[in-house]
Amino acid sequence: MNTQTAEADTDGDTEGNRLQALANLWISGTPPEPRFDTIVQLAAELFHTPMAFVTLVEKDMQRFKAMHGADFPDIPRCMSVCTHTIESGAVLVIDDMLEDPRFAGNPLVTGAPFLRFYAGTPLTTDEGLRIGALCILDTVPRNDFGDEQRKTLERLGALVMEQMRLRRTEIIRSTVMNFSDATELAFFAIDANGRIEFVNRAALTLFGYQQDEMIGQLIDIIIPDRFRGAHHAGLARVLAGGTTRLIGKTVEVVARKRDQTEVPIEISLSIWNDERGVGMGAVIRDITERRERDARLLRMANQDTLTGLSNRHRFENLLQEELSENKTVTVALIDLDGFKDVNDSLGHAVGDALLQAVAVRLPSVLSADVTVARFGGDEFAILLPGTLQPDEAMTAIGAVLSGFEAPFDVGGHVFQLAATIGVALAPLHGTDAEELLASADFALYRAKKAGGSKMLMFEPDMRNDSLARRATQDELLRALKNSELVLYYQPQVSLDDGHILGVEALIRWQHPQHGLLYPGDFLPALESSALALPVGWWVLREACRQAAQWRASGLPPIKVSVNLFAAQYRASTLVQHVTSALSDHNLPPSALGLEVTETIALLNDDNAFEAVHHLRDLGVGIAFDDFGTGFASLSSLQRFPLTTLKIDRAFISEMTENPHDAAITRAMLMMSNELGLETIAEGIETEEQEISLRRLGCQAGQGYRYGKALPPEQTAVLLARGFAGQIPIRMH
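^ that's the sequence the OP posted. Answer follows.
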């Protein structure tokens, strides 16, 4: 039985939008959770059915988030009944699937568990996108499912969605709080009465207090007696609408700890007005023992700076040398199982130390002629020359699995890691470095898909997993040649007066059969292919060309920002491409902004870091995109040559309703101001969000409140309006 991929849900939304909405919930592929298990158990009890499930419908698979009464593996979407539920947009009831021609041939109907009755309600996001279903099933036909039961099932489905939204909020909140607690700077938020509302872990450590000893107390507790009079006078001036010399500056003063000893500090104050009145923020650094900045010496181009191992560039060169001499060789790609949990819970300092320990252990369990490299993150690679037979290769590489049996003792923490390994042999599985590494990557992907903590050798059928991705990549090659790729532009505006500061260039695909496609439909395939570089360079040049054309037509000289792919960031020609694009179109460096994600910026590539630093020094803007969704530490922000921080929409959406979220956003803006960065808030949709952000000191915003991404001609009209001042740019 074949089921067509679900088309748009409402208002012209594409399947890509639906899949992106599912991805944004960060739930697909995650283990069972009590909050969802309880709901399916309740559903089964309410409707007296033996089975109930929460399902998530991906592009090609249906996954089970919660199961009651059966334990099914994930199934292909073509076998899914729930895909019909999301297409219907309402409660779907099938009294007897054996009598319904759509499902009579379904293997789950004709075979175990011999399903007959089905009722399901779609799980619908706030945007009207249906990402899965809550369903109940029985092995006998039923015809007693009436309107009241449908309403009850719908309410349970709404409860599932509420739990999914709550789960995502909890993840975001935990990420932000972990980030705050991972910094070495002390953060304070102070209300109009001078009482402490928020402190981070660094503040507690610096001043020697417990959190409950500081929250609600006057900030006087860290001010020596002889300075309190001046402090009170300054606070009174601020409350009366005046100014203080400390606002917007970094000054050195003396503070007092809990034990009454004094400590010299460096402090920067900011001030805001919100519905509760005046508030202040303080960012404090202990300068008695200044730590050296996270500045690493540039290392050799062939060495990973964190571990001292060979890096990817060196590894690929060695591999190609072996292959060019027609030598037999084995390569293995290794991912560390459980490493992400270490980073999330203990921070990057511990994570880096653990990576260094792994880098010491790997060579110790392998023979001396083996090359061990770190490709980035928690991905390592092994080059084993001279292996002739697959069983010999598996035996040699298998020593890695044995080497991970002993725990790692790092910084007082004991970690039990495991490794997932993909292995490929030359010339059996590839005759050049790219093909051989791709084969090992296919094997690694299959091993991770099978649960991880194992080693698999490449087999030809593993390529089938990438056929769809490669088909898209082939179409993208045609699209690039046929000029099917286009750029749309979304305005970035000043929150002070609403005028347009710049635009962000966003790629679209004008597909000859499928119409306008959004990045979610093709970006994963693009980023994993060799096309990432030519497409990325095209985006750069096209954005510069368009910016020059706008300027030539008399429009304001705004900044155009483009997103860098990881491949561009690592490319040795990055500076050359950027400077050529600017000079060819007679644009100053200040006319261009480059946006990188936290994941890209955290790649341990000193050559790339030096290139971006050079571009920043020329005047090109460098921005962290979607800040808060990755794992950048404060030291990373200090080290990376940033000019701008873009706060992800996830932190903006609920800040006007939730005081805790507002405090988090405030802390992020304080941090950005302390680091001297411009700040752009993404995803602004309401006037309330705009007003709150402006009061908190955010300089710029982007989102549907000011306009969606538009083609160049419509963007020009928008720029002309904003430039001429005839129509306010803010859109209601």
